[in-house]
Amino acid sequence: EVQLLESGGGLVQPGGSLRLSCAASGFTFSSFAMSWVRQAPGKGLEWVSVISGSGETIYYANSVKGRLTISRDNSKDTLSLQMSSLRVEDTAIYYCAKNFQRSPTTPTDFWGQGTLVTVS
Amino acid sequence: SYVLTQPPSVSVAPGKTARITCGGNNIGSKSVHWYQQRPGQAPVLVIYYETDRPSGIPERLSGSNSDNTATLTIRRVEAGDEADYYCQVWDSTTNHWVFGGGTKLTVL
Predict the structure, then answer these.
(1) What is the pLDDT of residues A25-46, one digit of tens each?
(2) N or C, where is chain A less crowded by C-beta within 10 Å?
(3) For residue range B72-90, what is the model confidence (pLDDT) as tens digits?
């Protein structure tokens, strides 16, 4: 059974930093790209970043580029999102999601339950 | 940047057919994916590559895509279909994933 468990969310002041983690299980982690998607309170989905299965290919949304850094540790089946220079508008539930295949251009077929980040 | 436009809301009576549209410039040339998000839950992929359904998704849900509009069709709508629905495409020009603004489906 595929499981994705996010952690690391919380309250942080503007300009601060936070590190989110996503522990994956139930599939061969290194064979799949992984994504972060966020959802501000009462708003729609916003794609944040995606990383290929090998970690060699990474893409970011313009709104987070230069401030958020995605990474993965395939030896520990863990996806991370290092967040710095946080802004009030970064407040959202952050979802970790598994992509369909190794390529980052494939859709996400399983999502975690999310972790809330509040910047205030 | 590429923009996907969805109607904010769609209402339908139980047993009827709901159609949720997703508009984009020449979206017919792109692969479209659809997600369902029930209140308080994480999104679930319901249609991928326009017409494919993941295991466990009922055949009542189907997708189509042509010219400037992609459509998610839900036949014989049930109360459990009440949710927000999002379309998504990969924009190869910018190497970005793009979501539509979402459509709230209300079952009357």
Answers:
(1) 999 999 999 999 999 999 999 9
(2) N
(3) 999 999 999 999 999 999 9
**Residue B92, Cβ neighbours under 10 Å: how many?**
10
A108 vs B: CB within 8 A: yes
Is A61 close to B96, i.e. CB distance below 8 A? yes
- Residue in A closest to B40 by C-alpha: A113
pLDDT at B11: 98
Report H helices in chain B: none
For residue B33, give the nearest of A46, A50, A107 by CB distance.
A107
> B70 near B32, Cβ under 8 Å?
yes
A·B CB contacts under 8 A? 48
